Amino acid sequence: MADFTPVQYGAAWNSAAAIPGTECGFHAVPAIKNVAVGFADRIQKTGHSESFRWGNANAWATDFEHPERNSTGMSLHFVDDVHLMYFAGHGAEELAASFASDHFGCRAFYKNMRLGVKKLRWLVLDVCDAVTFPVPDSVVRVWSAPLSGDSSHPQQALSVLCTFVKQSFAGLNTERGDDFAVAVSRGTPVGTAWLDSAFARSGSQTNTPVVIACGLDANDAMFRRDRRTLADRDVGPVPARFLSMKWRS
């Protein structure tokens, strides 16, 4: 087993229905909570340090948005103040992560995120439609700006973003959060751990996980995507001049 590197992590989820009167419209999916809590419980037991754990009404969109992009954004104090963040919930196609709360809105818009400019190295967005087909075009269209850095860290960002292509089904594999936590704690590269843990198929339903890595060039991004582990906790923000992606379907 690789040497153990403890990280600070956060977990959040949206398993409840949307709040009436907001722009969000989705149904409750109780299985989503099982995914996020499974991750949080397991990674805590393996020796990592929990900074926060918020669900439904206590999980806010503002925690993901950068203050340079939205004056109410608090990402530098929450999502970007941990090494590893796991959010399980709903997504609006190529637009936003959606929340069962209304703290300055129910959506964390991807265009308002500037991920990894402080402490965040790995983000799991366990949501539908953060990426669509064709994958390379969607990644560039949606994620170039969120991974472009802020005024203090231009062209710098997190190491790896983990999410799904098109629709995902929480009930297909509610143990994926737990499995992911076990794998990364054992020293499995974070991108590989996500692809292995999150892929699932049942009949016509398929969960298609994707990882997006940042780098100085293609080789640097591919190496970070395929090889980097939690041992890189203190490496970053990393160059984000090139994005490399891999998905499993």
Please give a quick description of this structure.
By secondary structure, the protein is α/β, with parallel strands linked by helices. The protein has helices at 31-45, 135-143, 176-185, 190-198, 218-227; strands spanning 8-13, 49-55, 84-88, 90-92, 96-98, 107-109, 122-126, 156-157, 160-165, 200-202, 205-215, 238-239, 242-247. The chain has a single domain, classed as Rossmann fold (3-Layer(aba) Sandwich), CATH 3.40.50.
**What global shape is seen?**
globular
Q: Sheet with the most strands?
A: 8 strands, mixed
Mean pLDDT: 97
Name given to the CATH architecture? 3-Layer(aba) Sandwich
Helix-residue proportion: 10-25%
CATH class: Alpha Beta
Number of domains: 1
CATH topology description: Rossmann fold
Low-pLDDT windows of residues: none
- Kindly, what is the distance between the CA atoms of the first and last residues, rounded to a whole number of angstroms? 29 Å
DSSP helical segment count = 5
Describe this structure in words.
There is one protein chain. This protein is α/β, with parallel strands linked by helices. It has one domain (8-247): Rossmann fold, CATH 3.40.50. 21% of the residues lie in helices and 25% in strands. The chain contains five helices and 13 strands. The protein has helices at residues 31-45, 135-143, 176-185, 190-198, 218-227, and strands at residues 8-13, 49-55, 84-88, 90-92, 96-98, 107-109, 122-126, 156-157, 160-165, 200-202, 205-215, 238-239, 242-247. Strands 1, 2, 3, 7, 9, 10, 11 and 13 form an eight-stranded mixed sheet that branches. A hairpin with an 8-residue loop joins β5 and β6 (107-109). α1 (31-45) packs parallel to α3 and α3 (176-185) runs antiparallel to α4. The longest helix is centred in the first third of the chain and has 15 residues, at 31-45. The chain is globular, with a radius of gyration of 16 Å. The two termini are 29 Å apart.
